[in-house]
Amino acid sequence: MLSIKTRSVHPASRFHPLLPPALGLLLVLVHSIAAARELRGPVQAEHGMVVSASPRASEAGVEILRAGGNAFDAAAATGFVLAVTFPQAGNLGGGGFMVARTSDGRNLSLDFRERAPSKAHRDMYLDENGEVIEGLSLRSPLASGVPGSVHGLLSIWERDGSGRITREELLAPAIRLAAEGFPLSQEMAQSFNLNATVFEKDPGASKVFIRADGRPWQEGDLLVQGDLARTLRRISAEGRAGFYRGEVAGLIARQQAISGGLITREDLADYTSVYRDPVVGTFRDYEIVSMGPPSSGGVLLIQILNMLDGRPLAAYARGSMSYVHLLTEVQRRAYADRAQHLGDPDFWKVPVVELTSKQYAKDRAKSIDKDRASPSSEVAAGIKIPQESGETTHYSVVDAERNAVAMTVTLNGLFGSGIMIGGAGFLMNNEMDDFSVKPGVPNLYGVVGGEANAIEAGKRMLSSMTPTVVIQDGRPVMVLGSPGGPTIITTVLQVFLNVGVHGMDIQEAVAAPRHHSQWLPDRIMYEEGAFTKDVIDKLRAMGHVITDATATIGAANCIYIGEQNVYGAPDYRRQSSAAGY
Ligand code: DON
Q1: How many domains would you assign to the chain?
Q2: pTM, whole model, 2 decimals?
């Protein structure tokens, strides 16, 4: 009998004790990370692999593969389990994106991003003086978009699944784990304890995430989620109608109406996930398949790679001054374009073809000076990119036929809005904060922009999520993605370059220290060990602003697909687990 091989990694780090959890920030201290990097190689398996933030979710995915399901079935089942075992980001009340390469060579992408409710309007987070009302788009009933995950996960199973897994079988692991409970890992217990002040504000969340006896959670405590099990059973029995219509839709709409939210029964009934053309680019002999708008991830990844293509990257060491300078300069240009041009393609004409063309990249990169940082204020006019923060989760799935599925799902902030739908057992997202809450108004520097991502009824908010499949010689070789708001794009970029240019194996590529820069704020952030003091001094002398290493960047749960075997690479930065068979 084939056995499942699992390896889980636990961060040798902890949540920042000084940060208000209400901000939903998941900053992880860098101390002792070096120890955690002493990893063995990737987890190797012959037939299939799931790498996710939760061992139970990865194992449930592999069980589906072993039962005859394909990677799409496993991706859907894993997603439902993450909603139970990783409620920080796994969800029924949020959304996400899938990018996939099928074994018969088709590239697919599914947008199950949340949508603004039909009563949403552009100034909904501003007071009478036009100032942003603090917290309204993050921790309030108004923070939520119409959830897309249930629609999306069922589409993935229904459209490209093997047909051998029934809906009941698909939902069974999630229902069992919610109804019977599962023992918390130390990280989960700690995360619940640190966010107790968020849960206390909401009766539904307190009931589930604060212990009835008042003592803090400890490793091994059983988390039972009876209401969530009931909701999952409804989805199992009725499909989408079990969530978007009937009792669950009624519970969402009623709670929203009572508490001042905008989501109605009609908004829920009208929600659909959308198959869109993925964005496709090339870098050397690799083909990059990634998520197009309403995510900015794929467009930026390809634009950045186009600006790097043809340069002698292998001649630069990864942490060298020239390499970091070049990456920073191309990223600055790409992220400036993000603020100006990227938004929901159903509402805004996004120039995808132009932005991802080789010629555009060539022209755009002409202004790069190899000896001097270009101040972001000179690169383009526009508004500051909203700082996305909190929690998202990426997982990667590959099956024996070599269908390759990259999934990134999110509630946006850690535990989303922190508001649970009473009686239904799941947290709502705070994705509305990904819109420009105050576009068209000059920012600190007097520049204007952000129309592409202004709030409109029914519109999807701009994302940075970058689920990606990399193809070489006509077959998928890498499944990539990460959480981390705007750092998602640069995380995926660096994992790819680490393998494709620097010859690392997938586990080394995931573990290697990362750095990030965007457009505004005009600064480079880095993980401990990403570069030496000498390189930092040289970059500063060129005009770069560098902030000290204080946090980890991303959590890339990736897979490399060899000719015979698949290799899963869990990311040590956050709780993560690879399971294969
Ligand atoms: O869609 C986005 O880009 C954000 N809502 C993602 C937030 C995120 O990755 C937070 N994770 N650490």
Answers
A1: 1
A2: 0.93
